[in-house]
Amino acid sequence: MKYITKTHKKVILFIILIVLMNVAIFTSFRQSVNLSIYSENDSKISFFYDNGHPDYPFDDSHMSQEYFVKSSKVQNVKFPLDIVNSNKLRIDFGDTSGNFKIYSLSIQKSPLYEYVISEKVFLDKFKFKNDISQYSFEDGTVNIASSGPDGHIYSTDTYSNLPIKFKNSFLIKELFIACIALFILFINKLLLIFRSLPKLPIYYKTIKEKFVIKNTFLKNAFNLIIIICISIISAVILDVVILRSIAKVSGFFNFDTAHRYFLNSYVFSFDRIYFFSSFIFIIGLIVSLGKSKAHKYRYILAFILLILMVLGKFTGSSLGFYDGMLQGNTPSYQQSTLLGNPQGIRGDEWATEKPYYFAQTNANPTLQYFNKNLSFTGTDMVISAFAPVKDITVIARPDLWGFMVMPNDYAFSFYWTLRLILLFMASYEMGVLLTKKQRFGIITAIVITFAPPVQWWLSQALMLMLMSGQFAIVLFNKYLNSKKLFGKFISLSGLALFALVYILTMYPATQVPLGYVFLMLFIYVLIENKKNKPFAFSRLLQYAVMLIPIALVLYHFYSNSKPALHVIMNTVYPGSDRPWIKLPWDFELYQFVNIFTASIKQPDFLNASEISQFFTFTPFVIIVATTLIFKNKKKSLLMSLLLSVSLFLMLVSWIPEVPFFNKITLLSFTYPVRITYAYGYSFTLLIVCLLAHLEDKRENLFTGRMPLILSSVICFLTLCIMTNSINIFSYFKSFSIGTILMILVVVLLSYMGFLLMKGNYNSVQSFIVLYLLLSVCSTIMVNPITKGTDSMFEKTTMEQIRKINSVDAGRWMVSGSPTISNLVTAQGVARTTGTYYYPDWEMMSIIDKKHEHINLWNQFAHIDMRLTDGDLEFSLLDHERSLKVNGTNRIIYTPIETARDLKIKYIFTMIPIPQSIIDKGEVTLLYKDSVDPWSIYRINY
What we know:
Layout: H1 2-28, E1 32-39, E2 43-49, E3 67-69, E4 73-80, E5 89-92, E6 98-108, E7 113-117, H2 119-125, E8 128-130, E9 132-138, E10 141-146, E11 152-155, E12 164-166, H3 168-185, H4 187-195, H5 200-210, H6 216-252, H7 256-262, H8 270-289, H9 291-296, H10 298-311, E13 314-315, H11 322-325, E14 337-339, H12 347-361, E15 370-371, E16 379-380, H13 402-405, H14 408-435, H15 438-449, H16 452-456, H17 461-481, H18 485-503, H19 508-528, H20 537-569, H21 590-597, H22 608-611, H23 618-631, H24 637-654, H25 659-664, H26 672-695, H27 706-723, H28 726-733, H29 738-758, H30 761-779, E17 785-787, H31 790-793, H32 796-807, E18 811-815, H33 818-825, E19 830-831, E20 834-836, H34 841-847, H35 854-857, E21 861-868, E22 873-875, E23 877-878, E24 883-884, E25 889-895, H36 896-901, E26 904-909, H37 915-919, E27 923-928, E28 935-939
Helix pairs in contact: 1-3, 4-30, 6-7, 6-8, 8-10, 10-14, 12-33, 14-15, 14-17, 15-26, 15-30, 17-18, 17-19, 18-20, 19-24, 19-26, 21-30, 23-24, 23-26, 23-29, 24-26, 27-29, 28-29, 29-30
């Protein structure tokens, strides 16, 4: 019996896992209609299904949601529908005319079987049509041209007499399930392989020693050539083999986000090879140098990487989104997106901030503190997105220094790359400071750099605060331990710089709660260095000297920006008050959703940026940290401080607002979701400290089966709660094998909690490997890899705007899209429309003379202006499109007289100008684009 148990234990477990995952597949399966369709233009389709009425089986109460179909792309649309209702089916092609191709239509009966309506049978089945001018079968596809507002086809006998087909994809899913089961069974052996990776330098040195070259120069040159060759070969394999394979697999499983991310890998790109080989080259140098030398020369290695990235003009910007908005390209255009999906939800990066940056560099004169192209009196460019300026305040933004001396493409790459490198290095230094181990510096750097909030808010203030705060703490520690005056001077100067960076991020919603975490770290450094007398008179004098340049820069900034700050504080939004928005009850569990938002599907209930969180392992970390604190009271200072501040901030974010307490603690400047970033960061540092402490232990932290029991209970309770969360459970059920993935990820994170509670050396090593994989894999696909800025500037319309404005400069008005208006602003022209961080009172006083509509424009707003032959109107309704505008968007319907009062010379529009204005000769057409629906008019004076 003992022999049988040992021999077949893993087989039995394997079968149980297969059965459980198949139970999850069958119980979560929903019958559906699957349509593979192509549209020449952006359009919307919907389905109607049997209402049971004998005369006409379709009505509005028996219809699907509208599905958006992106232009020039084959898209799979899945509509959940019971098979009993799908025999009578109608497909609507939206309310505008368009051309479509249908590649396949199937009705999913079960995970095993489906009805497939072939292209030849399709015309017979869907023989009823309305507002359809073309309906034919050609080259394996059904071609449909809708010609009116009610274009549709329908069938009253969809799947009768059709053969039931076995789904080949089921076998692939079973293979995938088997691989997952094997992964779970042999996870310990796989972790051993990953844990052996740090031994690569030893293997490399062993091989290198076999090739004895006595001349040092030749030896180093040979070594460098080998690293370069390995880097290039590895990059080619990664790009051509691995990425293309991922694209195919993700496409098969209908993981649309991942498939689109890797889709560009089907086209060979030397730029991508250069990008990947640069990173592999740096890794090769680190392996070649060894741990101690790599640590010694870490900033040289970082500088080399910065140079390589800037020379390649690489960024992580989503500016490629403009390619979907403007498709007319100049002959010199090169696609900006090399790999990945431009993130539409990061519009504050590509559609707002970066146009402001280029409005500075392309203006004449350039880089002014107050840009008169953006408002009548001159927009404060430090308050507005902190764009690059030729002013002492730019010292607080090292990432913008490239704009002072470099062309746009290189400066933009410098901006993106330096931010990431500085954050990585600051996190590395923090990890080394807290654990006294270089290896944990690397772990800290990877976990923080790839944390979901950092990657989803990559171009925003959060990463600057983390970078500057960490560097400030590390430099303060170095200052206290410096023996030489020069070392003290350098440390204090760096501390002053990064303190200034932190202050001038000017986002108190995150600054204040993060400030509490850095305060705890500051206290830790003070106590650890009490022997160095941090409050000696000489040191206090040095602190005072350090504060002088900070105070001078802040005074200069306040003197210049006081008017803009006053205007912002008195706006309707954002104003001076910050609403306290409660967290959803299941917010902490959104961490499980974070893992898949970049690779599989973004959530519908909130945008991926807003739900992003650090992976905190909260119950496990609290249990382990509390246990260690009580067991090691003499060595628990750091853990006690980090646990205390984490729990304090967590408590504040979850309890109802306490106005008086929030005011005296400055937490009135923030709100719960921003506080989660602070305690998430604090928990992350605590996890690193726990791992470093537990690594030195050879015995288990808890005795017996306690870790297994606790982790199992937490796992079970987590699954129960998640299945009762409408948002989370609906999210996982919305994509293929989602329910399986939900169970697996809960089991995985619970297993990681088990490893943490077990607390011995081997468990810690396994946890570290999984922690790094979890961090990197969950966010590596958040931001695209882009090159240059052609998506913003090499558009036929933008080229024409620059040409016209260079001959006869004037103020521009854009009609139809505030986003495109910002792009026009980036060309270096004067504007009246687009995003206003604060209102242009002079302009608005011309438009709204009596300030009757002040509540609509006295705020952060996206302004769209359109000529009208009627009266002036501030509108929240887009009359031309019959749509209500969203959020802070405003449309101003402007008479021609008001446009002249504003001294507008040119109109860039996709909205037809009223014919009466054209007939009177009030405007002259200068340009009409042949690809995009945009035209340029000149107003006649």
